[in-house]
Specification:
359 residues; alpha+beta; 5-stranded antiparallel beta sheet; 54% helix
Length: 359
């Protein structure tokens, strides 16, 4: 019984991974094989002492069905959730298992089962199901926290934030949780592991989407160089990081009437800005007056020509708010100790290439 987790995982792996290429089956194959695994364990392992194995296969099955778009999958998933909860209670009441259940392996099993149920209800994606999803993922999170399982706890917190975002309709990028996941992977599997690099890219993307563009771009530049050096240009982690970085380096500006452009560079000693329309593929470059463009949210800028807040001249920050009526941007500066400030458009210049931190 002590090795129940390992045994269940190995059993499930036989139905999920190709023995030749060692890759997980995909699409219709994984759909059919996870169903076969459930049917087999349900038929051959009816005793409550084998509940761990059946819960494991049922939980795996919940991850591949499509309850939002397939009514049969939804019905199957709801039945599986009920069965998982029933098995957990039966195992807790069984005298043979009672002494073992509170060992970490079994408590972890209970938490992962709740997480699978929460994931299923999250994908059903109705107001009622999302409330259920939050309840079960919170139960999983609490167990992981009590047993000091840091990584699954963080993943549960990330899922809870996503569920809350769906319920409220307000975006929650959960940057803090993503940063904790990234830090955990750096400590445990190393900064060069593709999984760690991918987690770092998630952090960088969330930073960019929350308009902390400078911090996000610097992190992603580091990840691209690290992945390129360790894994090579053709590795998936390198390609993904480079694709993100290319998007982050796009400097978005708008005109007074709100038309967006991608700013490319300044010319004529900064009097003109070369831009192109992001909505038109292969759009030709256009030259417009630098005084006619406004740095948009997340765009890195540098202060220039300030007559009052002279200590901010030459300081770099990113735009967090744009007030067209007042003609000002709220700029948050990268230098520690500098408070954010409202700066008029004509005292800001787009920064196309971030200087080194020690510059």
């Amino acid at each position: 019984m002590e090795n129940a987790e390992t045994g269940a995982a190995l059993f499930a792996k036989a139905f999920e991974y190709c023995p030749n290429c060692k890759q997980q089956y995909q699409n219709e194959v994984i759909y059919k094989l996870t169903k076969a695994a459930v049917d087999f364990t349900d038929r051959e392992y009816k005793d409550v002492t084998c509940g761990y194995l059946l819960c494991h296969t049922l939980s795996n099955r919940l991850t591949v069905i499509d309850p939002k778009n397939n009514a049969d999958d939804k019905a199957e998933g709801e039945e599986s959730c009920t069965k998982i909860l029933s098995i957990i209670e039966d195992m807790k009441c069984n005298e043979e298992l009672l002494g073992l259940f509170w060992k970490e392996t079994y408590v972890y099993f209970e938490a992962t089962a709740y997480g699978a149920i929460g994931g299923f209800y999250m994908r059903v994606d109705t107001e009622e199901s999302l409330t259920k999803a939050k309840l079960y993922v919170e139960k999983a999170r609490d167990i992981f926290r009590e047993t000091e399982n840091e990584m699954p706890m963080l993943m549960a917190e990330k899922k809870i934030a996503s569920i809350e975002s769906k319920i409220s309709g307000e975006e929650n990028l959960c940057v803090d949780t993503l940063q904790k996941i990234y830090a955990y992977l750096q400590r445990t599997i190393g900064e060069t592991d593709p999984q760690t690099i991918g987690a770092g890219a998630d952090v960088a993307e969330a930073l960019c989407l929350s308009f902390h563009a400078i911090e996000g771009e610097r992190l992603l530049s580091k990840l691209v160089e690290l992945s390129r050096r360790v894994h090579g240009m053709d590795h998936e982690s390198t390609k993904r990081s480079m694709s993100y970085l290319q998007r982050m380096k796009e400097r978005i500006v708008i005109t007074q009437d709100g038309q967006p452009f991608i700013a490319l560079r300044y010319e004529n000693d900064g009097d003109k800005c070369i831009v192109k329309d992001p909505t038109i593929e292969d759009e030709k470059e256009t030259k417009i007056s630098a005084s006619d463009i406004i740095p948009y949210l997340g765009t890195p800028v540098v202060c220039k020509g300030l007559q009052q807040l002279t200590h901010l001249n030459g300081k770099i920050g990113d735009v967090r708010k744009v007030d067209l009526e007042e003609g000002k941007c709220q700029v948050h500066f990268q230098e520690a100790g500098l408070e954010h400030a409202e700066i008029k458009f004509n005292y800001l210049r787009v920064v196309f290439d971030l200087p080194p931190l020690d510059a």
